[in-house]
Please model this.
Amino acid sequence: MPNATSMSRPALSLDAYAVALALTLAFLVRLNLLPPVKW
Amino acid sequence: MATIVLTPARQENLVSRIAALVPGLLLLIAVGFAGKFIEQFIATYTKAHQITFPNIEYVLWAIVIGLVIANTVGIPRVFQAGVATYEFWLKAGIVLLGSRFLLGDVLHLGGISLMLVAIAITLSLTFMHILGRVFRLKPKLTSLLAVGSSICGVSAIIAAKPSIDADDEDASYAIAAILALGAISLFTFPLIGHSLHLGDKAYGLWAGLAVDNTAEATAAGALYSNAAGQVTVLAKTTRNALIGFIVLGYALYWSSRGQAHAVGNKAAFLWNKFPKFVLGFLLISLLATLGFFAKPQLASLANLSRWAFLLTFAGVGLRTNLRVLVKQGWRPFAVGAIGEVFIALLTLGLVYGADRYLHL
Model:
């Protein structure tokens, strides 16, 4: 059973970090702060 | 507003955790680049020497190199944490891929996927439970296998395990069976798709509906073609979005039988299980639809997504340990395998029908 500490401070999931990274990259691209990315 | 203060001890902890990821991350990059290099080398060499040779995608090379390393020299402990980040790159790649879809396409293809997913899930869950009884598997192991094969593989099993109070052994069996079947699907789906001359959209939809793990589904789609890979990700993302509802259904079923703890707030439960990267995918797709990005910027985002997937494909090979998969009992594997064949045939029929009547 989850204890009081883990209930009050849920850890950020992997998904949240992945979304944060992707959005950051998208905004950097939008603001032309990243050079064009080639494949 | 709360302020987060990093004490020197916590800073050191964070730095050491990030540093622990570096060796494995470098291995992912090396394997991914090796796959890309081999594809380009073969293409250049065969063109220069006018040799007819089928183009073997970097996806397959990266996975095979990873498989060879993992099953010969093995993955030393120092690399393991970094290799495990492949799922993180997968999710970041999926969010970035949202830029390739206008929201209208998402709603059209996603709507068709959702309808097909609902039919496929209902029938496959029923079939898996019948199989579980025939093979006399423990009911909770059957539940885990059913969730894993009808929704999204390992993530679904991990999400369902605590909700239905399944034991570790059942979860390990189910995960091993799903991983083994995912590895087989990865190589068989593109071959079947080509032999049936499926179009990119039809194949992409089929792979997204039938291959369990998101990483393997993404690879199976990309192995067929870039366009098929994008549709696979969309269909698979739709399937993943339903995970909370299915797990909630199982949690309520097992708690009603007194064999799992009661579910409190159902909305909170659903939100907790919902894969948040789906929201990121939709957000980027919405921004692309609203013209937030210029055309060259959209190309950059798509390429960033491909780089993220390159690390994912390397990780798929590196984390597949064939010896561990062989060690599992034959019955969970048999139930999973028969179930997978059923789901593959069922979804293939659904995709054919959708292609004909709903015009993919």
In short: Chain A has a mean pLDDT of 77. The CA atoms of residues 29 and 37 of chain A lie 9 Å apart. The helical segments of chain A are 4-8, 14-30. Chain A touches chain B through 20 residues (CB under 8 Å).
